[in-house]
């Protein structure tokens, strides 16, 4: 339970203030924060809006998919494509085509070199359709590889900024806009403030809070919901900190209120999420943070590192078994194109066995409000997402397919288990027959020729 802690504040101050008899010693100090805004650090190169061309994306936001082209394969006839793309407003025998979304999502799932191949689980079986990447030269982030000759330039002129996740996804409609205004940023932060998850930051040291060369930064998950009103997050509430998962402790230096952490092998914290099924832990390899403490108790932060691009694809594609269908119908994205772009732009974590990079550089930004971050008497734990087994199964299938480069068939589902792309009925007998054939053929696996 979250309580307003005037009494706790006094206790903490008393405990952390040096005794009067030893004025020469510096006083231990601690500052806590709860994150109120959080998003991928994608630099927007236009002046306003989300669609306009800018220095980041001269062509503007990635346009909607051309489904006629996307569905075209050597085995799918034009008549089948036309049947799939019948508009939802079309009436057949007085009934609207209300299943159009499900039928399109199901068809998009199969566009490899054979009808029976699930292209989201096995994207390497489909040709690269290309994707609109960021061509601008400015990005937020860190020089992770310590090479100023590679990467972007930061807004304040630093060279060598590594943020290739931005290069891949920065032109997407869902992520484009001035800070904290893109579609998924608004949606994600709204859900975070409504209780989807909570992130806390705690900074401590033994010298001056604004200048300390031996400070500690902790960033973590909290099981406590954010306390807010109609204006925003209310400061000075207490939040328990979880140290068993989604938690990182780093050494840091502070100069004039600017905090620079060490670069750690693993930076773990809650992932940016907007849906119950895609919340969880984000792992940044070779991660670090840059924070700025405001005089009024505010905090702004930037964190970055290398994320396993395969994990990024798997979590983005399989919130449910068919979240890719949502990406490709609502968000103007192409998951097969994203797969190839993530793989092509991977710039770190080289696998010594294959010589290929498994990590893609990334950066996220956030703001936070003053709070008390406390160690509970009984260790707190992460509230795991409430979801079916389906997302995890499909993510594992993709990772296996990518690892062994063999076609992995769809798994059998339990009776009545929602797969994410099944409507109440199939309007088209032709599409229904095609789907039946796909399921029948999904019982065997074959090596990619």
Number of helical stretches of at least 4 residues: 11
Helical residue percent?
10-25%
Distance between the termini: 58 Å
Largest β sheet strand count, sense and barrel closure: 8 strands, antiparallel, barrel
Determine Rg (CA atoms, Å).
24 Å
Q: Average pLDDT value? A: 86
Oligomerization state? single chain
The ordered string of helix (H) and strand (E) elements is HEHHEEHEEHHEEEEEEEEHHHEEHH
Number of domains: 2
Shape assignment: globular
Percent range for β-strand residues: 15-25%
Number of strands: 15
Strand order of the largest sheet: 1-6-7-9-10-12-13-15
Low-confidence stretches: 1-24, 421-449
Key terms for this structure?
449 residues; alpha+beta; 2 domains; eight-stranded antiparallel β-barrel; two-stranded antiparallel ribbon; 11 helices; 15 strands; 23% helix; 24% strand; globular; disordered N terminus; disordered C terminus
